[in-house]
Here is the input.
Amino acid sequence: MSEEKFINQNITPKNTSINQKGNLEISGVDLVELAKTFQTPLYVLDYETLKQMALDYKKAFSNYEKINLLFASKALMTSSVAKIIDSFGFGFDVVSMGEIYTLKNAKVNLDKVSFNGNNKSRQELTFALENKINRISVDNFHELELLNEIAKEKNIIQKIHLRIAPGIECHTHEYIQTGQIDSKFGFDLTKIPNAIEKIKNEYKNILLKGLHVHLGSQIFETKVYSDAVKIVLEKIKMIKEDFGLELDEINLGGGLGITYTEEDSPPSVFDIANVIISSIEDNCKKLNLNKPVLYIEPGRSLVCSAGVSLYTIGSEKNIEGIRKYIALDGGMADNPRPSMYQAKYEAAIANKKDSIKNEKVTLAGKFCESGDILIKDIELNQPKAGDILCVFDTGAYCYSMSSNYNCALKPAMVLIKDKKAYEIVKRQSLEQLVQNDVILDID
Ligand SMILES: Cc1ncc(COP(=O)(O)O)c(C=O)c1O
Here is the structure.
């Protein structure tokens, strides 16, 4: 692994510093001022960090001539984010009609989009076909039949990938492992011949272009990627020999991990790219196959380090000798990851001059669940009511997983670019919260 630290290996965004006022700032924008202007909780996204990571991805895979980089929208999807990532030359992996619609709203060209998911509905598949989505990653037999039927009605030959479960376990949280045998996603390896037979003989409105795997998320090992390449290429060889179908595309999904806390040591995108590219070359040589078009779908690693969340500290509860709780004005509704899968974060008080960490506290959210703890046992600079807390690495799976639990209003999101802050998502209003409620006339 290389010595130099890359974006996904750093806890803070690229240009994070303490300014003359003693406040934390990112790319020249004071976070305390941001909190004052836009209120808290607030999602903040740094353009420069995002751009650097996108450039690193492009550079890392630049010596593979047939590369398609897709951003996994599930990590973070808003219309401005879509537009920015599109401007970096990425396509998109989507998993819902809503994500496709958001891309349309951002006027993103949908011919760079791949549609994933284990239970796409008739409505969603129809919407995808009507919008000329480039590839559909078909997850199961039910979907093969449904998609063929819809494509036939529309007189379309739809290009697809077949999502397979490669039987690879990676050491990440069980909720974010997806490549193992016992997974809800993808065709079992043993079912591939049956699926190919059906595609070849029955489903004339489907054109199989390649195979798709996704191993899981927050992955720290590189070997799982070379294992995946080997399995996928061996299956492509089997399909060629046994069925006479030549598949020329592989999609290896996303999964590259990031450094949330000092405990984490993910490889860089360059490490992952080198492993993938050399594994493709070796296996293609061994199996006498042409090098396929390669799709990669990073989510977390592309956007996570660019994001921080700001909160205002409120009440506290000190249980002598046991624990001191410090409560924030947000929590599991804007960031469900700690309560969902014990995710860990680093944080700092944005308005304290020095970086002396001299009090161990537990940061509690404000929602009505005892499990709504954002960070357990963190050392901070004597946090007090009114202080602004900055939680790092919240760019992925926070806004996109946020909810209206306890009728919380979803926070705003600002983008820092050229030393200015632009509101890219407005804070939800009370009126928006109830806009879909229907009040029954009950006597
Ligand atoms: C099919 C697929 N591709 C890509 C991703 C993105 O993964 P990550 O955010 O870990 O890069 C996911 C995440 O669950 C996924 O399911």
The CA atoms of residues 28 and 419 lie 5 Å apart. The chain has twelve helices and 21 strands. The pocket of pyridoxal-5'-phosphate is lined by residues 72, 74-75, 93, 116, 178, 214, 217, 253-256, 297-301 (CB under 6 Å). The first strand starts at residue 16 and ends at 18.
